[in-house]
Amino acid sequence: MQKVAILAYDQLAMFEFSCALELFALPRPEYANWYQTEVVSFDSGPLQAAGSLQIVARQVDSLEPFDVLIIPGWPTHNKHVKAQLAIEINKFAGAGKRLVSFCSGAFLLAQLGLLQNKQATTHWRYAALFKQRFKQVKFIEDVLYTQDSTISCSAGSAAALDLGIEIIRQDFGHVIANQVARRLVISPHRSGGQAQYVETPVAKQQGIFAATLDWAINNIHKTMEVEELASYANMSRRSFDRRFRQALGTSPKAWLNLQRVNLAKQLLETEQLTIEQLAAKVGFDNAITLRFNFNKYVGIAPSQYQLQFSRQT
């Protein structure tokens, strides 16, 4: 059972804080060894939040008992960090423990020097300010989240849920992560590399693609080309590509390959297959294509992923 600390601070970002609570603090007795979570603060007294809300957290002077620290936002204008907080977070990182920032929480990690030469992201609204202030950070533009060693950063608002679901998947596997996602009424399929922001509102376009996406996922094990998706949606290939990217922030081909990789991860966790059998089951035409896309989207080889996450190891 991992012990999780959610950091509360004055002028707390409530949406990101609520995401952290929903993902990691909500009791889930149906899952063995679920997270044990506390809201902590290095400040005394009630903390102010938006809408005249006040938050009372457990005041601590050490993070030593915890395994994971979640930073749900941080004031972007705040260039001064209290000494005890800075010491404890640096000590926490030095012990190899997991740090997770939501939205502007990356500013705090960067101020403490913990993102130097590491990949990181934040809300697109703060990107220019972040890059200006923290030139030694490998800032990744327009992604939902990044993970570099023990440090994870999400973009703004709902991207915190995407990162949280990915962390749950890494800790508990695809099945439980998908169950948690369904209860949150969100998709379990948004990868970190997906665009943060698309010009055309997704809600306006979803009806056009909902049936096509469902059909594609149900037939993902078949060798399928984008032309077939366009035909199912009753669109020309050119129109389909353009409107798909506007709605989902990624290309149909990339989306299709990502769904295959997601299925491959699930099968690697639950079945013993050769790489050729796995490629055939998820719709890739050969093992080389599977390996290439798996490394692209997951960052490791299928065999290494299976060693880390297989239920049978």
Structural overview:
With 313 residues, the chain is α/β, with parallel strands linked by helices. The chain folds into 2 domains: 3-183, Rossmann fold (3-Layer(aba) Sandwich), CATH 3.40.50.880; 201-313, Homeodomain-like (Arc Repressor Mutant, subunit A, Orthogonal Bundle). It is 46% helix and 12% strand. It has helices at residues 14-25, 83-94, 105-111, 127-133, 159-172, 174-183, 202-218, 226-232, 237-248, 252-270, 275-281, 287-298, 302-309, and strands at residues 3-7, 36-41, 47-48, 54-55, 58-59, 68-72, 98-102, 119-120, 138-139, 145-148, 151-154. α1 links the parallel β1 (3-7) and β2.
Order of helices and strands: EHEEEEEHEHEHEEEHHHHHHHHH
Helix content: 40-55%
Class from secondary-structure proportions: alpha/beta
Please, how many helices? 13
Quick one: how many beta strands?
11
The main sheet comes to:
7 strands, mixed
Name of the CATH class of the largest domain: Alpha Beta
CATH architecture of the largest domain: 3-Layer(aba) Sandwich
* Percent of residues in β-strands: 5-15%
CATH superfamily of the largest domain: Class I glutamine amidotransferase (GATase) domain
Per the CATH scheme, the topology name of the largest domain is: Rossmann fold
Biggest sheet: strand arrangement: 5-2-1-6-7-11-10
Rg, alpha carbons: 21 Å
Number of domains: 2
Poorly predicted runs of 5 or more residues: 198-206
Q: How far from one another are the termini?
A: 19 Å
Q: What general outline do the C-alpha atoms trace?
A: globular
Let me know the average pLDDT: 88
